[in-house]
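User: I'm putting together notes for a lab meeting next week and I want to include a structural view of one of the chains we've been expressing. I don't have a solved structure, so I'd like a prediction I can at least talk through. The sequence is below, exactly as it appears in our construct file.
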Amino acid sequence: MTAAHWQTQHERGSPWALRLILWIALRLGRAAARLLLYPITLYFFLNGRTAREASYHYLARVFGRPPSLGERLRHIHCFSATILDRVFFLSGQFDRFDVRVHGAEVIETQADSGQGCLLLSAHMGSFDALRALGVDQRQLPIKILMFPDHNGFITALLHTLNPSLLDTVIPLGGIDTLLQVQEVVARGEMVGMLGDRVGEGGKTVPCRFLGAEAPFPVGAAQLAAVLHVPVILVFGLYRGGNRYDLHFERFDATLPQNRREREAALGAWTQAYAARLEHYVRSAPCNWFNFYDFWRQG
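Assistant: Thanks for the context. Below is the predicted structure for the 298-residue chain, given as structure tokens.
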């Protein structure tokens, strides 16, 4: 199977159904809304063939065996649960969650330094846990690089819950994206991005990941080389129930200042990122949410 590019895979589900879930979540609470996750999981499992097959092949790689039906359903349920929890994170209802921070000294030391940095994550667990907690609770100066038009309805719907977060978004692909990022880090702020998806036409390098080579984007490495700021890895893993684990670690892979040497080192830098991503994927397999053939993306 050759998967279509992820940016061509539009969000599933109708606007009225999403609004209904949002209404239930805010009016009846998280417990009532979570009951809807079971029929939602079954619906997407039965109707989303591309995602279902991609999930199967991914889980087979991470487990080293064919996944059971329960594991396949759990993968989709985990994704649905993190989407639902975005409602509560973005509306400031942090007291509903047990968020445990690992490596807090890394992010606190960086914040106290007054120097800008790059926060590098992946489509794994919940980046909103970091964004909402960082912006609203700890007052961390975080801006997020993202494609605002992908899954635009869900993004717009959820951002109505916390309009202040709109100011934290830097659109990827804009003519002034790099300039905005440079201005942010020059002010001593943090820029967050996800480093595991390739934008259309983006440059990639083959990296070893879960036992086989996969094309990884070099955009994060190129940005780190241009910015000359520290890179911190961050992963917000959903552990079931109301628990999330936020992991911070300093990413010490370096890139030479010489441009020719730097180009040659992009692959090694990206491979180091892929290795750390694999570490966290293996620790929480149902948290990785790339529902397309990651190893043979079209």
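A couple of points you could mention at the meeting. The mean pLDDT is 85. The radius of gyration is 19 Å.

User: Perfect, that's what I needed.
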